[in-house]
């Protein structure tokens, strides 16, 4: 009953019939209460999204697997302290939790969420050292900004480690092959004994006893009886007839002691084993089955002769000699003619057996050659499979190396390098939702919103069910002011998963584009409720508070975002903008520099940092920062305009005028450009050109503040230079 229930529970879990698995496993544990069954019940609860149930039934359990499942339940409930205590080794039991790489990864997650960055990095690196294909650990290291080069983590040096994980130890596989050979020889030995016993049943009691003593009958009989008590397949052992074996595909049980010990060791082996070990065991089991099935087909009415033919001629001669010796001994001890007749009968049978064995030597050689050929085929196929698997592992590590290098560049905000790496991928890998989403995010960071829109659109076409990075796509559409596309995206994301934080970020961006900031803020806060560790939702909430000029709550949202992810540079930038608006320039500089250290290739951050330095009267530093911003993004007009202003401040009027002439060609409808050009012409005493440019600036309808400044500049055109300088 227990085995039946366990089988059906596992089957229900495989078929994702979670409720059925929970019900059957509860019945199982009620009938057979054990910690192993309790672990199975906890698995059912975890699969059925009931971590609290798994938490309560596993609390206080000491088995390693129980502690692992308990830690999983604790993480689902954000109980980090208890999860950490469960995963760490217990001193009293001296037992470490299984699943080494997974345990190290979970510890890294715990330390990351409890603000212990260094220990988190250490455990993520241990994860990769145990299992180089643990991509999630490398992903976390990239997010923390501490990832090594992908060539180190996924290099050729990691291939043997992955091969060992996949194949297991090669020596163990060869040992299994040797064990298979001993199993086959033991089968032949056991069947040979049964054939002899079948023959001896036709003889008298005295002859049967003597033959058993000469051939070690009692010891083998004891071994058979011991095996019968421990194995359920006793029909073949109790009956020497080959019919049951011929009618069944199941190999007969071996009759030697080491096989019995092997089975007992297997029964004590824990349930969780390496996948490579299972592969080796299954492979050897299939080969054993095929060998035994072939030998079963050979068994017929010539059972005794067929199996004796598997022995060597020397063994046959020894057997004949022993039978002859027993015949001679019995003739001396038995005085009756009946016994002598029986002995002569036995001698004739032995002679006939010897003749049959001698005549079948050629067939014996063929059988041995076939068996050696099968074993050689097995070993050669193992070697060829190993070479094929090694080649596959090398190709997989090469793929991970490319993906890892691109992802590392993107997390370090080296977006152009990331795009170049992703271009090296094959079309099969490049045209996938995840890669195209990463490409779109790279273009977004480069402020290339058109290419970002195109990449994200392709990702949506390929995998419309994938919501990863779709919050970034909604921000792209927000900046492009694509109202209809943003609405459509939000509606589709609702249909896919209305409980995903990315969905509510898209809805919030949609409301924000429509100037409905209250609804947008509610949507962003809903995303925070669904996932409190979704940093971008906190940042977007802060942006909405800034638009509504509620700077206090905006600061709180940005700080919460940084508590979740200290490398979320958007929040550092948002705090800098708040302090810049409040004219707290020292605080603004600090937060802009923090953002600049995280993302040193953002022209926007450089521009606002330069603006802050300009407000602090540090014109040289500000000019240097603006020049860096121009080099990073030559299409961004803001750093160029600020550079022109700084050059005017430093008295370099001609250089400033050249930059403004270039800007006028790129953005001809910006009034501030013409106003600054009018100021330069006025200083150069070219009043006609100055008045012309001031007039153009007024015609472009600037803001009220700029209108006042331009009108004041026009009034000063008639004032002499000496009076202007005195003013």
Folded structure, characterized:
- This protein has 727 residues and is mostly helical.
- Among the domains are: 1-168, Alpha Horseshoe (Serine Threonine Protein Phosphatase 5, Tetratricopeptide repeat); 669-726, no CATH class.
- The chain has 42 helices and no strands.
- Residues 169-362 have low confidence and may be disordered.
Summarize it.
This protein is 77% helix and 0% strand. It is mainly alpha-helical. Helix 22 (361-411) runs antiparallel to helix 23 (415-422) and helix 30 (517-530) packs antiparallel against helix 31 (535-547).
- What is the number of helices? 42
Spatial extent as radius of gyration:
41 Å
CATH-defined topology of the domain at 1-168: Serine Threonine Protein Phosphatase 5, Tetratricopeptide repeat
Structural class: mainly alpha
| Basic shape | elongated
Rounded to the nearest angstrom, the distance between the terminal CA atoms is 101 Å
What proportion of the residues is helical, as a percent range? over 70%
The average pLDDT score comes to 76
Strand content: under 5%
Kindly report the name of the CATH homologous superfamily of the domain at 1-168. Tetratricopeptide repeat domain
Low-confidence stretches: 169-362
CATH class value of the domain at 1-168:
Mainly Alpha
Corresponding CATH architecture of the domain at 1-168: Alpha Horseshoe
DSSP strand count: 0
What are the main properties of this structure?
elongated; 77% helix; 727 residues; cell division; Serine Threonine Protein Phosphatase 5, Tetratricopeptide repeat
């Amino acid at each position: 009953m227990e085995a039946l229930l366990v089988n059906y529970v596992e089957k229900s879990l495989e078929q994702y019939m979670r409720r059925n698995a929970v019900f059957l496993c509860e019945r199982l544990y009620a009938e057979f209460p054990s910690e192993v069954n309790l672990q199975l019940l906890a698995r059912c609860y975890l699969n059925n999204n009931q971590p609290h149930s798994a938490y309560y039934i596993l609390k206080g359990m000491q088995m390693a697997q129980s502690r692992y499942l308990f830690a999983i339940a604790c993480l689902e409930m954000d109980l980090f302290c208890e999860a950490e205590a469960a995963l760490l080794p217990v001193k009293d039991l001296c037992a470490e939790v299984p699943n080494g790489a997974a345990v190290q990864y979970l510890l890294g997650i715990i330390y990351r969420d409890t603000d212990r960055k260094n220990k988190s990095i250490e455990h993520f690196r241990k994860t990769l050292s145990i299992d180089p294909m643990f991509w999630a650990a490398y992903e976390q290291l990239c997010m923390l900004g501490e990832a090594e080069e992908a060539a180190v983590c996924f290099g050729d040096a990691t291939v043997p480690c992955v091969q060992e994980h996949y194949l297991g130890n090669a020596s163990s596989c060869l040992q299994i092959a040797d064990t298979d050979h001993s199993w086959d020889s033991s089968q032949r030995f056991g069947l040979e004994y049964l054939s002899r016993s079948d023959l001896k049943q036709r003889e008298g009691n005295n002859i049967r006893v003597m033959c058993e003593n000469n051939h070690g009958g009692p010891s083998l009989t004891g071994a058979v009886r011991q095996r019968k008590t421990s194995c359920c397949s006793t029909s073949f052992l109790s009956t020497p007839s080959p019919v049951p074996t011929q009618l069944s595909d199941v190999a007969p049980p071996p009759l030697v002691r080491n096989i019995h010990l092997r089975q007992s060791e297997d029964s004590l082996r824990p349930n969780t084993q390496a996948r490579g070990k299972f592969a080796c065991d299954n492979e050897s089991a299939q080969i054993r089955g095929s060998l035994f099935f072939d030998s079963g087909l050979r068994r017929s009415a010539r059972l005794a002769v067929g199996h004796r033919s598997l022995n060597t001629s020397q063994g046959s001669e020894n057997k004949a000699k022993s039978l002859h010796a027993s015949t001679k001994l019995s003739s001396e001890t038995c005085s009756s003619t009946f016994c002598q007749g029986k002995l002569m009968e036995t001698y004739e049978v032995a002679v006939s057996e010897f003749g049959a064995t001698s005549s079948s030597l050629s067939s014996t050689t063929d059988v041995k050659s076939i068996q050696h050929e099968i074993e050689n085929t097995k070993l050669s196929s193992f070697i060829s499979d190993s070479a094929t698997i090694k080649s596959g592992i090398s190709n997989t590590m090469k793929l991970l190396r490319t993906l890892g290098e691109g992802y590392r560049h993107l997390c370090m905000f080296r977006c152009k390098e990331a795009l170049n790496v992703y271009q090296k991928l094959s079309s099969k890998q490049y045209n996938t939702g995840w890669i195209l989403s990463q490409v779109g995010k790279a273009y977004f960071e480069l402020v290339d919103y058109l290419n970002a829109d195109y990449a994200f659109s392709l990702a949506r076409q390929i995998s419309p069910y994938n919501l990863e990075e779709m919050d970034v796509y909604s921000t792209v559409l927000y900046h492009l002011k694509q109202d209809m596309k943003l609405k459509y995206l939000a509606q589709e994301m609702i249909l896919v998963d209305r409980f995903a934080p990315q969905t509510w970020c898209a809805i919030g961006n949609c409301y924000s584009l429509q100037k409905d900031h209250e609804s947008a803020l509610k949507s962003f806060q809903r995303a925070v409720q669904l996932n409190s560790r979704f940093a971008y939702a906190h940042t977007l909430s802060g942006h909405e508070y800034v638009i509504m000029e509620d700077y206090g709550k905006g600061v709180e949202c940005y700080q919460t975002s940084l508590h979740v992810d200290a490398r979320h540079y958007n929040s550092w930038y948002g705090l800098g903008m708040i302090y810049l608006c409040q004219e707290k320039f020292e605080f603004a500089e600090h937060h802009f520099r923090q953002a600049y250290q995280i993302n040193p290739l953002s022209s926007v951050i450089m521009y606002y940092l330069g603006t802050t330095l300009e407000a602090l009267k540090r014109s040289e530093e500000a000019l240097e920062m603006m020049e860096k911003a121009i080099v990073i993004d030559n299409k961004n007009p803001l750093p160029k305009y600020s550079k022109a202003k700084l050059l005017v401040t430093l008295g370099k009027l001609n250089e400033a005028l050249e930059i403004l002439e270039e800007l006028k060609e790129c953005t001809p409808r910006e009034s501030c450009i013409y106003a600054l050009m009018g100021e330069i012409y006025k200083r150069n005493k070219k009043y006609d050109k100055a008045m012309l440019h001031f007039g153009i600036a007024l015609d472009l309808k600037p803001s009220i503040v700029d209108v006042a400044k331009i009108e004041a500049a026009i009034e000063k055109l008639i004032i002499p230079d000496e009076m202007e300088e005195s003013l």
